[in-house]
């Protein structure tokens, strides 16, 4: 775990974000920059010949997997789950299960061959073969938000002169189907010594299914100046490295309707000279993301 957290210090966000503003939470405006949720895309699912098929014949089902990440190699697995009354043909080029790693932009083609059942096997009645398969890829989620802190004297000076203005932080949400949203519960810049609530919600915005965050997989990173007296729901301080204190979840956290409960962290703003901007980070480490696809193949008996 400590090795994984150490590697987070080196993580940078890729460019090409889509920016939109107007999120409001407890009176605090935030600008959000969010990268696409697509990483491994399944497309061009084809059955040849096209359905309906004749009993006692053969057909192929093919699909493509594409790594749309611009930066990272992504490990991928695939597995045939069900073929109904049709039968997967063994000893063909592609096995019914496999794995590989896709480099950025790489396209992998999979093709399976199946036998349709004989007419007697389906009692001479039209039937459907549900061809179901699962793909799994391994990825991570990351987000970063700005935090502005002002010293008390500077705050009072700006207030008295009528020159005080609020600070609009930017939340940057990384690529992938799992998105981590951090919302600030105080207006920025926050005065040194002030209490800063940070609310964290993790959402599954992809077309797969995530059921929970396993223990010690969710990480909240905050500059170590904020660590004293800090508290996070479901989390405890794991280590301090590279100027950051990292909190990790001490229990699994469920997804309900594709999102986790809202979790609260509370930090105390450190003493600063005039005004200073910090960055807080959140990560979901090494998750497996499953997608299940199904194609219905109609089989007609011979007359």
Tell me what the structure shows.
The protein has 303 residues and is mainly beta. The protein has 2 domains: 2-37 and 139-286, no CATH class; 40-138 and 290-300, Immunoglobulin-like. The protein is 6% helix and 55% strand. The chain is built from 2 helices and 22 strands. The strands form 4 sheets. Strands 1, 2, 4, 6, 8, 10, 11, 13, 16, 18, 19 and 22 form a 12-stranded mixed sheet that branches. Strand 18 (235-241) and strand 19 (244-249) form a beta hairpin. The longest helix is centred in the middle third of the chain and has 10 residues, at 152-161. It is elongated, with a radius of gyration of 26 Å. Residues 2-27 have low confidence and may be disordered.
Q: Which short descriptors sum up this protein?
A:
303 residues, mainly beta, Immunoglobulin-like, four-stranded antiparallel beta sheet
Q: What is the helix content?
A: under 10%
What is the count of helical runs?
A: 2
Q: Give the terminus-to-terminus CA distance.
A: 63 Å
Q: Provide the number of structural domains.
A: 2
Order of helices and strands: HEEEEEEEEEEHEEEEEEEEEEEE
Strand content: over 45%
Main β-sheet description: 12 strands, mixed
Averaged pLDDT: 89
Cα Rg: 26 Å
The gist of it:
Helices cover 6% and strands 55% of the residues.
What does the secondary structure layout of this molecule look like, with pairings?
Layout: H1 2-8, E1 18-25, E2 28-34, E3 40-48, E4 53-54, E5 58-67, E6 74-82, E7 87-88, E8 97-102, E9 107-115, E10 127-150, H2 152-161, E11 170-173, E12 178-184, E13 190-191, E14 195-204, E15 212-213, E16 218-223, E17 231-232, E18 235-241, E19 244-249, E20 253-254, E21 263-268, E22 275-300
Parallel strand pairs: 2-11, 4-22, 10-13
Antiparallel strand pairs: 1-2, 3-5, 5-9, 6-8, 6-10, 7-9, 10-11, 10-22, 12-14, 14-21, 15-20, 16-19, 16-22, 17-21, 18-19
């Amino acid at each position: 775990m400590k090795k994984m957290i150490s590697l987070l210090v080196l993580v940078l966000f890729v460019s090409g974000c889509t920016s939109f503003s107007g999120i409001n939470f407890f009176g605090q405006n935030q600008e959000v920059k969010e990268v696409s949720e697509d990483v491994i895309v399944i497309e061009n699912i084809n059955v040849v010949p096209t359905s309906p098929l004749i009993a006692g014949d053969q057909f192929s089902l093919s699909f493509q997997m594409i790594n749309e990440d611009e930066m990272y190699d992504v490990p991928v697995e695939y597995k045939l789950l069900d073929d109904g009354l049709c039968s997967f043909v063994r000893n063909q080029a592609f096995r019914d299960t496999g794995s590989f790693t896709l480099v950025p932009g790489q396209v992998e083609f999979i093709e399976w061959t199946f036998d349709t059942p004989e007419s007697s096997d389906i009692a001479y009645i039209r039937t459907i073969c549900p061809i179901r398969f699962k793909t799994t890829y391994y990825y991570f989620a990351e987000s970063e938000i700005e935090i502005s802190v002002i010293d008390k004297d500077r705050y009072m000076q700006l207030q008295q002169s009528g020159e005080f203005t609020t600070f609009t932080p930017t939340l940057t949400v990384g690529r992938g189907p799992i998105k981590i949203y951090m919302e600030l519960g105080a207006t920025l810049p926050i005065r040194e010594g002030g209490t800063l609530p940070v609310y964290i919600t993790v959402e599954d915005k992809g077309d797969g299914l995530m059921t929970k965050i396993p223990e010690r997989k969710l990480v909240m990173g905050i500059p170590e100046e904020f660590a004293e007296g800090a508290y996070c729901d479901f989390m405890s301080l794991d280590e301090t490295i590279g100027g950051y204190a990292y909190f990790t979840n001490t229990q699994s956290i469920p997804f309900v309707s594709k999102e986790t409960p809202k979790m609260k962290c509370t930090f105390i703003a450190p003493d600063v000279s005039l005004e200073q901007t910090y960055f807080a980070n959140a990560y979901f480490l090494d998750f497996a993301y499953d997608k299940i696809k199904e194609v219905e193949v109609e089989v007609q008996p011979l007359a």
